[in-house]
């Protein structure tokens, strides 16, 4: 069974840092691109970042320069380092697996349950 | 990258058909056939309903269909059922090799 389990969320003051983790199981971790998507309470989905199987990384404009994505194949885990946090970063952070298929699109076939990040003074 | 534009809400009666639009630009929706749609029920994680504009993952009802014209993609749900009531999000690949979501549409089944 494919599973993604996020952890590391919590309450942090503006300007602070957090490190989110996403532990995976049930699939060959090294063969999949993995993404972070966030959702503020009552709001829509927002794509945050991705890391490819070769370690290539991409970020949304709103987090570029503040967040860093990484992966560790030995632990089958994904990480997101959040620095210089702002009130607007408050959201539920999901890790999501991009499905492997014949094409070049990016589609999320499995999601974790999310970890809540609250930025407040 | 600005969010794709979706109507905030749509509604329909059981058995009817509804269409949700998703407007983007030539840098995303209009430039690639990599549009997807997700369904999200309250308190649940999103579920992939359509990918590559109009393809359905295994197990998704053929009542769900997708299309695209120019910079606007559309999701049509035919034969509306009570369980279709949910939030729907479109998503597209972008020229910056990132992803962008729409703002979401709340579907109400009357």
Structure, explained:
- The complex is a heterodimer of chains A (121) and B (110).
- Chain A is mainly β and 121 residues long.
- Helices cover 0% and strands 50% of the residues of chain A.
- Chain A has strands spanning 3-7, 10-12, 18-25, 34-39, 45-51, 57-59, 67-72, 77-82, 91-98, 108-111, 115-119.
- Chain A starts with a strand and ends with a strand.
- In chain B, a hairpin with a 2-residue loop joins strand 5 and strand 6 (72-77).
- In chain B, strands 1, 3, 4, 7, 8 and 9 form a six-stranded mixed β-sheet that branches. In chain B, strands 2-6-5 form a three-stranded antiparallel β-sheet, with no helix packed on it.
Descriptive labels:
heterodimer, A: 121 residues, mainly beta, 7-stranded mixed beta sheet, 4-stranded antiparallel beta sheet, 50% strand, globular, B: 110 residues, 6-stranded mixed beta sheet, 3-stranded antiparallel beta sheet, 9 strands
